[in-house]
Design a protein that fits this description.
Blueprint: E1 26-29, E2 36-39, H1 41-58, H2 68-80, H3 98-115, H4 119-129, H5 131-134, H6 139-173, H7 193-204
Helix pairs in contact: 3-4, 3-6, 4-6
């Protein structure tokens, strides 16, 4: 049985890559020679709020936006749920070099942003600085692969944006009853409790 390769989740850095360690949030209280160790729940909640702010920053979402939580939810879904991600189906035979070409695009754009060079000059710089990686390819070949990868990336970005818009439209069409209240609030519901009690009372009379 061949198992599908697990897709790696986006790499989080800094505080987002570290759990909230309980050992760091204990307080010591007590008297008469007895010391009690208790969890500082308030400190843990404060730390969690700080990390949520970092998570919004990671996905470049403004927390003050009215749809910030919806945008964050969609970003997390698209980043972590394989069923809502785009991928090329694995093929037998020669391995595709999509990942290598994406890396080529990143490195060329990095050189261009740092030096202001044109694409062709940036490719020449890469071949000179990293001959073991790019030196075996000609400038013309790398240029063609760069343009091909850029077209594919732009197409995927456009598809991704359209997909986000469709999800947002689908969610909003479900109505407010299907959308959880923002900032952890609770919905006000009108239940039949009082009515049923009155009905029982009237029947007793």
């Amino acid at each position: 049985m061949v198992m599908a390769r697990k897709r790696r989740a986006p790499n989080y850095t800094g505080a987002l890559a570290q759990p909230i360690y309980l050992e760091e949030h204990y307080t010591f209280t007590g008297g008469l020679g007895q010391v009690t160790q208790e969890l500082d729940v308030a400190a843990i909640r404060k730390r969690a709020v700080e990390k949520m702010r970092l998570l919004f920053e990671h996905y470049k979402i403004d927390p003050s936006d009215e749809q910030s939580w919806q945008k964050l939810a969609m970003s997390l879904v698209l980043a972590h749920v394989p069923g809502l991600q785009f991928a090329n189906r694995p093929k037998r035979g020669r391995k595709r070099k999509t990942g290598l070409y994406d890396e080529l695009v990143r490195e060329i754009q990095e050189v261009k942003s740092k030096t202001g060079m044109r694409t062709q000059d940036a490719i020449r710089r890469l071949r000179k600085d990293k001959p073991e990686k790019w030196g075996r390819y000609s400038v013309e070949s790398l240029g063609a692969r760069y343009r091909e990868a850029r077209r594919r990336q732009k197409a995927l970005a456009s598809l991704h944006e359209a997909w986000l818009n469709e999800i947002a439209t689908a969610i909003s069409s479900c109505g407010p009853s299907a959308t959880p209240p923002p900032h952890g609030g609770t919905k006000r519901t009108v239940g039949p409790t009082k009515i049923s009690v009155r009905a029982k009372t009237s029947r007793r009379k």
